[in-house]
């Protein structure tokens, strides 16, 4: 009996302690009244994580509440947004970074979310810098050399990408289709491996984000072109896609969104805070370290952009045989 | 004697009080997170990344590097004490390390792994200073064909890991490969064996698998017999390795260090292959291979040395080419970039103070780690005196937390519990988990590189023989497979397999 | 696992049935491999490796079965001889329940009862030790992770933690 009582007492004490420790989740009128969780669907410490942390840090100053970054990696950056769409309340306290794979994966296979319906898009933020490099000792001095060689030897030109179905793969195939050439993709896992592949002459070309920068600076790799809108200030000699005769920009853009059905007023508040964040010089400087440039789109434009991207990607993905199989 | 001048310059940087302080903070945090399996250096480093922004690049990176190699020291602690490996390389340490602990020899096991780590770490640093630039080419000489052959060699090592039935071990290895292949195929972007679960698209995590099979599986097995109350022999005679232990360990440490350093240079899987290969090598060379799996100190000393030397070797591709060979190195790359530095061919010439300062700080850090870790051994050993009915709920708690922290996903906790149950039944029926784990890590690498090399060679299988490195790996694999069949060596192989049904 | 006795072929031979399980898994893997397409030699498909590994699995499983028929093997009963199988069984049941509770209830609300059950049900620890340990260990770890490492353990629908 004594023991029983002691149990009850201990339980009560523990409960009371717990209650004082956590406090109640107070409901209030003015958003935000408690910390906001930002899902970053990538491992901590990567370029996306660090840039999102910098942006979130700046935005939290304008919101007056801290933003906690929750790294929920997996599924090529889709597990985080998908979990949010399925489980989180649209109260503005859970938002997620939306990488382009959220739109692309549904084109390739059955998924649990619908990019058109399941998200409240908030703001478009920035994108990556992609480029094509070759070994410095290679016979290819310009992109035109590659096209000429590929025309004479279809399928002989190999290029390393960080994976099938990544922006790099889709982009390269789009370029090849426009140029009327056939290239062979060799999918690696992540940027580190593509650098080694092209350095060791295992593949002829590399298509990747700016992980190649130190090797280009050291003269070990030659940058043939970049896929950004304008020439990159860090590599003024490399022509853009547009200059090379391909009217495209390929930068795997990303923004943030919440679950569907968010109050437009809350969306507007978040939009304003994040807009100010990407105008912050400190944030711009952090982004520049990863060769990222702010690419602002407001809520409405972002929604339109999602539709456009989905449509243009559908064509390419079906063209290279990655489309969803009807079964 | 450029190197000497540079080294002096490096110590000049590393011995600045502020850098010593950062180095100490780094190795201290590293020791802490290293002990907790699953949490590991990744979360600690990514969290402290912004903190380093305030100081100089040197001190920030010195601290980051400290967390990394500091965690390598602590990594073996839970493997030895409670059979929970935090990463693939520690799986080997479990095999004999935990057996030693059960025999009351946790102290010498922990001691030899700390001292072996120190020796291997120091040697790796000397090599890093002397040959870093010239070894950069090794990392890029390995293309898909070379990796595929290296993985074949790694899987052949498997046959030396088994204690019981070879057919059972090979069946486990096949299951390991299949488990490793779950997820999005990186070559065709097709989901494989995901059963429509989005969490499986990136595959099953290594941490939940090893912590389930080893940690939880062991707990389930032990609770069957808790009537005896203390699973671990309470008689602890010594805390540090004695003279005999040293005599047995000297060779394994030396060989493990060299093996680990060179394999550590290779991006992807190098360190894991190194630790398993070191174990197999020692078992092969030993006069008493039947002791392996029953608490042979060589089976702890060799792999632990290999593991730590590999951590040193891993700096080479990062510092000289800007190619991070593993996730932790990728984080370190992040630390460089955040300070506006780009590791690559120009780093050493453009920032000699930084490069040599970091290397010198690692010497100092390794010393600090030794001083920090040796007194801890006594404390860890005391932990084993806890009655098992108090200890095992805590073990379960820490496996759950470690698994959750490795990915922030509840799904991984389910995976861990599932593999704990599988691990229990595997043990009951005499199937060993170690071959499964090795194949789980190497299988996907083999598949991926095999397919990439066939794409590159346009279906020409000769590519594996025409390339010298690849041919050498395959030749070695064949020799390893055939050697036991040769009459002179036959008896030894039988000795290895003798303890069937252990 | 004593293999000294070699009984005649019996149906409750555990080796036999683990081998059969191996074949079943192997056949499943082969089928998955075929479904994912084998591809060609110059562009092997997603199912290429799975197919061949599945074949190997069947081969090894057949070896195990053959050995069990010719040499016999321990029975299911003998595997658990002298072991109290109820305890690991109870842990498995408790952990399965925990797995279901973790996400909706959150780390603290589900882990404290888990610890209490493990401490009291399997091999009872006295209450005065079990309760403080069951409360303090999860709360302590939770606090260190949250404050020290900024890792948020699942907080569940009541958002406690």
Automatic annotation (TrEMBL), chain B:
<dbReference type="InterPro" id="IPR002823">
    <property type="entry name" value="DUF112_TM"/>
</dbReference>
<dbReference type="Pfam" id="PF01970">
    <property type="entry name" value="TctA"/>
</dbReference>
<feature type="transmembrane region" description="Helical">
    <location>
        <begin position="469"/>
        <end position="489"/>
    </location>
</feature>
<feature type="transmembrane region" description="Helical">
    <location>
        <begin position="167"/>
        <end position="188"/>
    </location>
</feature>
<feature type="transmembrane region" description="Helical">
    <location>
        <begin position="410"/>
        <end position="426"/>
    </location>
</feature>
<keyword id="KW-0472">Membrane</keyword>
<feature type="transmembrane region" description="Helical">
    <location>
        <begin position="200"/>
        <end position="221"/>
    </location>
</feature>
<feature type="transmembrane region" description="Helical">
    <location>
        <begin position="327"/>
        <end position="348"/>
    </location>
</feature>
<feature type="transmembrane region" description="Helical">
    <location>
        <begin position="109"/>
        <end position="131"/>
    </location>
</feature>
<keyword id="KW-0812">Transmembrane</keyword>
<feature type="domain" description="DUF112">
    <location>
        <begin position="20"/>
        <end position="438"/>
    </location>
</feature>
<feature type="transmembrane region" description="Helical">
    <location>
        <begin position="386"/>
        <end position="404"/>
    </location>
</feature>
<feature type="transmembrane region" description="Helical">
    <location>
        <begin position="354"/>
        <end position="374"/>
    </location>
</feature>
<feature type="transmembrane region" description="Helical">
    <location>
        <begin position="20"/>
        <end position="40"/>
    </location>
</feature>
<feature type="transmembrane region" description="Helical">
    <location>
        <begin position="258"/>
        <end position="281"/>
    </location>
</feature>
<keyword id="KW-1133">Transmembrane helix</keyword>
<feature type="transmembrane region" description="Helical">
    <location>
        <begin position="138"/>
        <end position="161"/>
    </location>
</feature>
<protein>
    <submittedName>
        <fullName>Transporter</fullName>
    </submittedName>
</protein>
UniProtKB/TrEMBL annotation, chain C:
<protein>
    <submittedName>
        <fullName>Tripartite tricarboxylate transporter TctB</fullName>
    </submittedName>
</protein>
<dbReference type="Pfam" id="PF07331">
    <property type="entry name" value="TctB"/>
</dbReference>
<feature type="transmembrane region" description="Helical">
    <location>
        <begin position="125"/>
        <end position="145"/>
    </location>
</feature>
<feature type="domain" description="DUF1468">
    <location>
        <begin position="19"/>
        <end position="154"/>
    </location>
</feature>
<feature type="transmembrane region" description="Helical">
    <location>
        <begin position="16"/>
        <end position="34"/>
    </location>
</feature>
<keyword id="KW-0472">Membrane</keyword>
<keyword id="KW-1133">Transmembrane helix</keyword>
<feature type="transmembrane region" description="Helical">
    <location>
        <begin position="89"/>
        <end position="118"/>
    </location>
</feature>
<keyword id="KW-0812">Transmembrane</keyword>
<feature type="transmembrane region" description="Helical">
    <location>
        <begin position="46"/>
        <end position="69"/>
    </location>
</feature>
<dbReference type="InterPro" id="IPR009936">
    <property type="entry name" value="DUF1468"/>
</dbReference>
